[in-house]
Amino acid sequence: MHAHIEKLYTIASKDYRRIIGLMSGTSVDGLDIAVCGFSSNGMDTKVTVEQFTTVPYGNDFKEEIKSVFSIKNVDLEKLCLLNPWVAVQQSKMINECLAQWGIKNEEIDAIASHGQTIYHAPASLHQQSKFGNATLQIGDGDHMAVATGIITISDFRQKHIAGGGEGAPLAVYGDYLIFSKKNENRILLNMGGIANFTFLSGDLDGSKVFSTDTGPGNTIMDAVVQKYFPGKYFDEDAAIAKSGIINETLLAELMNHPFFEQPFPKTTGPELFNLPYLEAALEKLSFKDLKVEDIMATLNRFSACTITDAIKKVFAGENNFVLYASGGGMHNPLLMEHIKNELPGIVIQSTDALQVNPDAKEAVLFAVLANECLCGGLTGLGKPNTAIPAISMGKISFPD
């Protein structure tokens, strides 16, 4: 038996595995690093978050990613260079965090690396008939494995597409395995650059699990802040949006896009919901002098409306569920206020109530995917050639 295969067998056979989950989202604000302890797998999965932090990206990292992020025509040499560079930079962050936490690298069984999404191209968006769904994340797993000395599982989204999905959302798999609860219907709402939610049935029936993107979360708001407020990257505490007034005409124009009429489930990304999307709406309405504060107030309401409209459409007015929020948008008090106002009678909490830090949730969920890659089996979730294909995800890279 090859030593690598023997190593995987040993890890899979452990009663307790330590896996680092990584998440770097479309907001490109930092790297979420979660050291997770796992026992068992599938519906019996038990996870303990031993350590968690977000390492902020420096301006240099952000600018390098922005140079290729969600851009159709990019410098191919730059893209080629960034693929290993991102992995090496993130590896340095991992090594430093482990040292600070007093954890030796050899005490970690695997890293689950999401990578950095630079382009998401579902067929519904690119509309080129001879091509299917596609997505691209950079941050090569081999380089990370070598730089950390830890087996790295990465590039999860490609298998999802190969199995018939759109490469997103992937949170549904981890949501189902660790957040399902008998006799409580749940919605797990994540608001990053793009917002998405997972529905988990209280009867634990995997065939009823549903997941979809809803539209923009923070992506356009962050882009406006970065354009008009140099040195700022997001609207902290919704201070800018709170000082503005919602423009109903602009809101209606922003909501006027075929994406919102497409059937569920569906996916999207900053390739659609970006600064040019806003600028096109402003130009169409001849709103050249609209105050940036009013734009931000409107965008905040826009994100909330797209989220709540999707929930209302999917559940046809029913409210027999508890909603658990996570992601950066959860820290935007105005966005949360809009959501609560639009979903009266629905209990809304953060995933803190489920013993998972809402900022750590996505990193933890990728660690769950890695645990399933190593030792998982059939879970009863997903069907071939659907939005939730029945697959195991992740490519394995060894450090030597």
Structure, described:
- This protein has 400 residues and is α/β, with parallel strands linked by helices.
- The chain has two domains: 3-164, ATPase, nucleotide binding domain (Nucleotidyltransferase, domain 5, 2-Layer Sandwich); 172-354, Nucleotidyltransferase, domain 5, CATH 3.30.420.
- The chain has helices at residues 3-13, 59-66, 76-101, 123-126, 141-148, 157-162, 171-179, 219-228, 239-242, 248-254, 275-284, 292-315, 333-342, 361-375, and strands at 17-24, 30-39, 46-56, 110-121, 134-138, 152-154, 186-191, 194-200, 210-216, 322-326, 347-350, 395-397.
- The strands form two sheets. Strands 1, 2, 3, 4, 5, 6 and 12 form a seven-stranded mixed sheet that branches. It has a five-stranded mixed sheet with strand order 9-8-7-10-11, with helices on both faces.
- Strand 2 and strand 3 (46-56) form a beta hairpin.
- Helix 7 crosses helix 14 and helix 12 packs parallel to helix 13 (333-342).
- The protein is globular, with a radius of gyration of 21 Å.
- The mean pLDDT is 95.
**CATH architecture name of the largest domain:** 2-Layer Sandwich
Annotated CATH topology of the largest domain: Nucleotidyltransferase, domain 5
Number of strands: 12
How many domains make up the coordinates?
2
Strand content: 15-25%
Termini separation comes to 16 Å
Q: Share of helix among residues?
A: 25-40%
The low-pLDDT segments are none
- The number of helices is 14
Global Rg: 21 Å
Per CATH, the superfamily of the largest domain is ATPase, nucleotide binding domain
Overall structural class, as computed from helix and strand content, comes to alpha/beta
* Tertiary shape: globular
Overall pLDDT score: 95
In CATH's first tier, which class of the largest domain applies? Alpha Beta
**Strand and helix order:** HEEEHHEHEHEHHEEEHHHHHEHEHE
Sheet of most strands: 7 strands, mixed
